[in-house]
Amino acid sequence: MFDFADPVLLARIQFAFTVSFHFIFPAFSIGLASFLAVLNAMWLATGRPLYLDLFKYWAKIFAVAFAMGVVSGIVMSYQFGTNWSVFSDRTGPILGPLMAYEVLTAFFLEAGFLGVMLFGMDRVGPKLHFFATLMVAAGTFISAFWILSVNSWMHTPTGFEIAENGQFLPVASWLEIIFNPSFPYRLAHTVTAAYLTTSLVVGAVGAWHLLSDRTSAHARKMFSMAMWMAALVAPLQIFLGDLHGLNTLEHQPAKVMAMEGHFESHPEGAPLILFGLPDEERERVDYALEIPKLSSLILKHDPNAPLDGLDTVPEEERPPVAIVFWSFRVMVALGFLMLGLGALSLVARWRGKLYDWPLLHRFALVMGPSGFVAVIAGWITTEVGRQPYTVYGVLRTVDSVSPLDAPAVGTSLVAFVLVYFAVFGAGTWYLLKLMGTLPHSHEEEPAQTPIRSAGITPAPSVERRGTIPDAEPVDGKA
């Protein structure tokens, strides 16, 4: 079936499939770990059982999402050796240590304190338990730090030289490699996206329960906290996205040209193409809906600033335009919908209708999965826009793949699709089932009485010495 397929394309599809499945779980767990830390802190500060109920509720969901993220990440990492062995060999001296730092710092930190966070509240005390929760949240952020440093270096490589055997060797300070030009922008943009994704999920769960019971204190609290987060983070995310775009224009201009759909250069100001159908063969965007000079205003802060187009880039150096063009628009459109949800929640809060406005609750419910879609769309924009390179401008994708035949890659791809949809489909169903139930109140838990080995509990009047007062005589004996 795969005899005539392109093995490089199949390897790319396989990696894209597995990384897309993997990425949605860290995008959720990064934000959820911090949310759990906030809930734990609020419980310690106020003593209100409501925050403890929400902590225990979301801790179960975090455990499942974290486990699926670890499993999918391990599978993905093996592909560096199976499908991308040349890439691993050549970039190993630089990327290998960075990946090792992620394991030695973030993964060990998470693994060391995760069990205490999930099962140790009644064993280590509330303060030490809160510290463990903070360490898990810190671990998720540190993990994102190292992984995004690796990815950013592949986009803006610095501090290296290429040896005679083709390997990339560090020649400058490791700080120059870690903090490469695109890393701060990518880190801020991605981590903020994770927080926003989590707030939308929490808000959707709260909205779901408010639609059936507006008096639920648990639903009200989680919905209110989520809407505060969305209202504050959505505009920040748009601002960070703009900064990231300007950085990309400086270091990867061809990617921005594809995002904007600019096949032609515009010496007197470029229009912003809202929608259209990119035609890469004819090098134009059909049925384009444009706003004159707005692209120059956004990218150069000058409506008359000239912008180069893909006509200045050799064809073999251009990324696939249609994929980048549409994935970018999906991300941006969802970002503005998130901004609208946050603004609408502020209006509802101001009018005193945050918990009594079904329209807002339905809007929040529909927007629940939008963070995941936006994250994947942004990832596609970033990674497809880097083509035809794995290490931008230095190592091409066709020179990074393992010497595999198409049937071998295609067979494993089919296996991944079947197993992933079965396993992670079941995991996602279980997560939705957990979210579909309201948190339980732990204020009035029944007292646990000792269980006698004989299975008999004496009456309260029985004295410790074992005598039974006022007992009737049996056979003449008391």
Automatic annotation (TrEMBL):
<keyword id="KW-0812">Transmembrane</keyword>
<keyword id="KW-0479">Metal-binding</keyword>
<keyword id="KW-0349">Heme</keyword>
<keyword id="KW-0249">Electron transport</keyword>
<keyword id="KW-1133">Transmembrane helix</keyword>
<feature type="transmembrane region" description="Helical">
    <location>
        <begin position="128"/>
        <end position="148"/>
    </location>
</feature>
<dbReference type="GO" id="GO:0016682">
    <property type="term" value="F:oxidoreductase activity, acting on diphenols and related substances as donors, oxygen as acceptor"/>
</dbReference>
<dbReference type="GO" id="GO:0019646">
    <property type="term" value="P:aerobic electron transport chain"/>
</dbReference>
<keyword id="KW-0408">Iron</keyword>
<dbReference type="GO" id="GO:0009055">
    <property type="term" value="F:electron transfer activity"/>
</dbReference>
<feature type="transmembrane region" description="Helical">
    <location>
        <begin position="413"/>
        <end position="432"/>
    </location>
</feature>
<dbReference type="GO" id="GO:0020037">
    <property type="term" value="F:heme binding"/>
</dbReference>
<dbReference type="GO" id="GO:0046872">
    <property type="term" value="F:metal ion binding"/>
</dbReference>
<dbReference type="GO" id="GO:0070069">
    <property type="term" value="C:cytochrome complex"/>
</dbReference>
<feature type="transmembrane region" description="Helical">
    <location>
        <begin position="57"/>
        <end position="78"/>
    </location>
</feature>
<comment type="similarity">
    <text>Belongs to the cytochrome ubiquinol oxidase subunit 1 family.</text>
</comment>
<feature type="transmembrane region" description="Helical">
    <location>
        <begin position="98"/>
        <end position="121"/>
    </location>
</feature>
<protein>
    <submittedName>
        <fullName>Cytochrome ubiquinol oxidase subunit I</fullName>
    </submittedName>
</protein>
<dbReference type="InterPro" id="IPR002585">
    <property type="entry name" value="Cyt-d_ubiquinol_oxidase_su_1"/>
</dbReference>
<keyword id="KW-0813">Transport</keyword>
<dbReference type="GO" id="GO:0005886">
    <property type="term" value="C:plasma membrane"/>
</dbReference>
<feature type="transmembrane region" description="Helical">
    <location>
        <begin position="359"/>
        <end position="380"/>
    </location>
</feature>
<feature type="transmembrane region" description="Helical">
    <location>
        <begin position="192"/>
        <end position="211"/>
    </location>
</feature>
<feature type="transmembrane region" description="Helical">
    <location>
        <begin position="223"/>
        <end position="240"/>
    </location>
</feature>
<feature type="region of interest" description="Disordered">
    <location>
        <begin position="443"/>
        <end position="478"/>
    </location>
</feature>
<keyword id="KW-0472">Membrane</keyword>
<dbReference type="Pfam" id="PF01654">
    <property type="entry name" value="Cyt_bd_oxida_I"/>
</dbReference>
<feature type="transmembrane region" description="Helical">
    <location>
        <begin position="20"/>
        <end position="45"/>
    </location>
</feature>
<feature type="transmembrane region" description="Helical">
    <location>
        <begin position="323"/>
        <end position="347"/>
    </location>
</feature>
<keyword id="KW-1003">Cell membrane</keyword>
